[in-house]
Amino acid sequence: MAAAAGVLGIVLAAVGGALLLTGSASGSTDERKQVLARASDFAVAYNTYDVADLADYQKRLGDLLSPKYKAQFVKVTDAIFTAIKDKKQTSGDAKVLATAVDSIDKDSSDVLVAVDASISNTDNKAAVQRHFRWVVSFEKIKGEWLVANFESVAPVTAETSTPGTPTPTPTATDGGAK
Length: 178
Prior knowledge:
Blueprint: H1 2-22, H2 29-46, E1 49-50, H3 54-62, H4 67-84, E2 90-104, E3 108-120, E4 128-141, E5 144-152
Antiparallel strand pairs: 1-2, 2-3, 3-4, 4-5
Helix pairs in contact: 3-4
């Protein structure tokens, strides 16, 4: 699992580097640096919370969000934090593994983010490492990059076999064609 996360981080870094070098999406280097920094700030802030302090969490994130997304975020976090309040859940030790600009223009951008965080609650006193992969969408409002949305990216796993190991062949099973 750690190897797959490492590979994803390397791929994101390579894609980001290639996009920066080739300029395949518009946007100056400074704009790219700004949106990448904002994506990292968002990932760390989003993954650092204590359900006992909802107001602090919403305040810290609020400055990073577009007005429209902030309203949605407040509704969602109000509901989620209320639902898990008894679990005393906390999240911290957020580490951004990689960011890469997927697209950028004068007033919008999509950034790929790989971040890990440690989550604990009454079910798991010892923090459990979680791996998050997102596409974070930004809007530039009054000269500032603000999060307009973000979506999780489904994990993809790949396995390799040892050289010389035969590839399994499909076989018929009970109920299948023979």
